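The data layer described in this paper is built around a simple, fixed record for each protein. We quote a single record here, exactly as it is kept in our systems:
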Amino acid sequence: MKHLLIIGCGDVAMRTIPLLARRYRIFALVRKPASAEQLRALGVLPICGDLDDRASLKRIAGIADAVLHFAPPSSTPPLKRVKQAIRAADARTRGGREGLGVDTRTRHLLAALSLGKLPEQLVYISTSGVYGDCGGGDCGGAVVSEAHPLNPQTARAQRRADAERRIRNWAKRNRVQASILRVPGIYAADRLPLERLRQGLPCITDNEDSHTNHIHADDLARIAVAALRYGKACRVYHASDDSKMKMGEYFDAVADRLDLPHLPRISRAEAQRVLPESLLSFMNESRQLTNQRMKRELKVELRYPEVGKRRKSGTP
């Protein structure tokens, strides 16, 4: 039986484990002992380590035939964030690449994996945020394929783009079959924007709103499994459903499902004045992902082809 190593045991990883338990002996990197007990109950062997501490990762070297890398990028302390912003501005002025954020967690992981027998496969969960705004921040969001140029706008998306680049270069150099899954907004019954709806923070009016993309957490787990089975070397896939929605439409759909009032709508100009930067970073980006490569090459049939709509059993 082959060995699988999971990096980042969050919600999607926990949904993935039951799908793989019969095919792999599963190991998982954990930081907190409390997480270990839950994993052991699922038949997973936990390994203590921290992606932010390179020295703690020696035990994962050579143990895995395949790796699922679900861990989020490293965060940046406020002071470092200011210094990085200054360096990024200087780099952009010079036309250099130094403005990209660096995902030290992925750098540490690849260094640790290189210490022993290399895995045959690696699947990385990235984000569609690496494309930045593809529609000028309005309802004309462009249709985006996997070949679309990257233009990450936020520090977090820049670190994802850095992780992608490192993984692909490492995989090519070491002949490891790496798949990159670019993921939009993840939802499930227990992953809905309830707090946003309860706060009543406004959305942008429909004629100025951004296009957004979504994937159900169960479908994402199945896509990750499919990438292990069918993914091509150094290939990027959009792990997105078929929905064609604007951001406000998504919040309205969730509100209707939960019998909550719709959020108020305001102009984009007003939103820039009254909404926090953490929300604007999402609302200022518009794009429509194509998912045909995922369906064709990974042979995925979505159970939730559109937000809130489950495919009936036996439906082709």
The first helix runs from residue 11 to 20. The chain has a mean pLDDT of 89. The longest strand covers residues 24-30.
